Amino acid sequence: MPNCTADDVLATVPLDDVWRWYWRLAAHIGARRVAGREPLASRFLSLYLAPQTRTGPETFECPPYLRDHSTIRQALQHHRRVYLTQEEMRTGGGGHRWAGLRSRWQAPASYGWNGRDPLSMYYEALVEVPLSWQWTGNDAERDILYGLGLGFQLRTEVVCRVTGRSGGLDVTFESFTATVKDRYDFNPTEHITTPNPDYRSAATGAICPGKETMRVYHRNAQRMERANRAAPYDLASDPWRVTDSRLTGAGAVTF
What we know:
This protein is of the alpha+beta class. Helices cover 29% and strands 28% of the residues. The chain has one domain (9-254). A hairpin with a 3-residue loop joins strand 2 and strand 3 (95-97). 29% of the residues are buried.
């Protein structure tokens, strides 16, 4: 029997029972729709627990509650400013540097551009998800947190038409698309509190049915991975067209 007063209840539970508990957790989360949809958290966890069913990166339709969330909108505003050389892009290791249209206009050959045709660019940067959504978030925000963790990559691709003028550039966005990308895995040094799918269950094998929630340490996920009962994977949303005129409207680059 597990020690239900322990901080890490699953640590002493046999591996097969841990794996089955995670499956019950996925089903428990999936039983409650989020904005009428299967939760990302249940879908992604189920895929993690069945590595033999996967043949490559997983794709998914980005739900409106993620696509239109203020966190994404703020990130898209950052991307627009990077393209317009109004804000530095983020680089690995916490660095920053200028990029976007100004450098391409000043040295078009370096980017394979003739300075006249529409110009294609892309940018990818981390979007952070607050852990506080675990307690203060709505259903959609908790699904984003449980499905994508504390952060994911947002990639945008744009096609711009650029016209030079005195002191800068006038820019028209002919297309602007976005994609959410992530690596579904677990950091063994971290933990998260989840519902206990066995709460009030009388079924044989139920784990701590007196506990409504469980603190789940991700080192238990690592146990499943070492036994080939689960495996991390890459995922990406289908690209969507950004239509907000505040993001796609005409812009300017100032020299």
